[in-house]
Design brief:
72 residues; 2 helices; alpha+beta; binds dioxo(di-mu-sulfide)dimolybdenum; Copper-exporting P-type ATPase; three-stranded antiparallel sheet; Alpha-Beta Plaits
Length: 72
């Protein structure tokens, strides 16, 4: 059963940022699809929750040098 999550990604400056993050998220085990929108600063990920957790996606975003701001 796939789940979909959406979260904000800050710190992206150009279309290559969002493209490489999209590839990075898409390549994670358990991720079936990932889209990253530079203009809206939104990532949308379809994933198998048995294989990958949102926390790991956030870690991946940070490895790429971007951030996921804490929801308040
Ligand atoms: Mo653009 Mo982003 O020149 O990590 S690739 S700033």
């Amino acid at each position: 059963e796939l789940s979909r999550i959406g979260f904000t990604v800050t710190g992206m400056s150009c279309a290559a940022c969002s493209a490489r993050l999209e590839r990075g998220l898409s390549g994670m085990p358990g991720v079936s699809a990932a889209r990253v929108n530079l203009a809206t600063e939104k990532a949308t990920v379809d994933y198998d929750p048995a294989l990958v957790k949102p926390e790991q996606m956030v870690e991946k975003v940070r490895q790429f040098g971007f951030d996921v701001p804490q929801e308040k």
